[in-house]
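Instructor's aside before we start: the two examples that follow are unrelated to each other. I chose them only because their records fit on one page, so don't look for a connection. First example below.
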Amino acid sequence: MFPPVAYFVRRVWGEPRAGLSLSTRLVADLGMAGDDGDEFMAAYAAEFGVDLDGFPALAVFGHEGMWPWQPPFAVVTLPVAGARWMLRRLLGRMRADSRDQADSRDQPGSRDQRPDVTLEDLAVWAARGRWAATDT
């Protein structure tokens, strides 16, 4: 079932530079988040006839947008984040930091321990016709 799933992902979402494989993750590798992830999974379920009843979309893809208190907080944090980014860029550390952030998802004890879905998971669910809680 992997080739039809990979074709679907390319058609609906696009393909990353690294290509698609069974281990490609929707959140970490393809950058799906919030409503985009929900919409992708709804299209996937319709395309392959997969029952996603109980699928933890919020746990996998997170929230969309901001909470009501975030805009005033952003007025303070965005200039600080921008200055921090500029300093890192000037010091040449931005590349190492982004690589560390990408790898931190896989490390035990990481702050971001949300489950992620792989293309292998999608292929198995498509063949089975349903999502199972033990898979994520």
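Example two begins here.
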Amino acid sequence: MSVQAARRGTIAAARRRTPPIVLTPQLSGVMWTPDLPPTSPSYGQAYHVQSASTGSTDYALGTHLSYGRFEVRSGDCWQQDIDFGNGYTGWGIHERSEVGGFIVAPDTHVWMSYSIRITPGSAPTDMPPELLYQGSPFCIEAAWHSTDSPDPNLGANPLPLVSSLQSNGLLAIQTRSYLQPNPNGDLLTQYTMNIMDGTWHRIVHHIIFYRTTGTLSGTGLLQSWLDGTSVFNTDGIRMGSAQINGPYWKFGIYRSHSTGTAVIAYANMEVATGATALQSRIATPLTMPTGFKGAIGGVKTYG
């Protein structure tokens, strides 16, 4: 039996589990549109779902209004990753439950505002099986991801901004730039947040990924607020990808293989462009969704 066939058997065995379903399941290949107020600039924004959900893994993503709960267990590989060998062979086994959408163009102000709750114990601890390629365990909870339209005149195409849950439980905000010596190499940690505590926290970001003209050409802006307090404010930062169309937004869980379970919940995910598009959310966030009471494995998930 080949290594890949053996791995497929392991994944299939993992999928035979039947946990209780208490949220609206979102299966791979469908869209999720958070139910935001019509006054929100993100009203109607839809996201593509990428998860291991196949009926027996409906815990991977459950939704209620603007609330989304993501869970990844050992062996939860997205079928497309398996089919195309993306993060499955060569780069080690990757596991995910995440959604993606909303492309932002170069030279554009973009704002994100959302609430997040990270279940204690969700940090990655298992060393990846192929250290040569991965080096250490990783768990990305959100990222601005490269598109498939690189500008060959600018070189590499890295992820410009990553929010990564570290093995020590801290959430690190990290950047890459096509101007750094190894654009697809190590992420540079700009700051960390200690929020893996099972309670809700509010995050707001204001970003320009990279400028194409002027004295700050090739650099960007990153401003961040946690629970209404400024935690980072730097202009002229090296942060940006060599792309024509710009990066797109993804959130959920994307990690190296782990024997543990990761659970992250989001609410009121808003992404909008404009110099002051979501500035008001720093002091005045959207009201959290109500009306859901439920549990998975005996743990209250919302309400």
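The first helix runs from residue 3 to 14.
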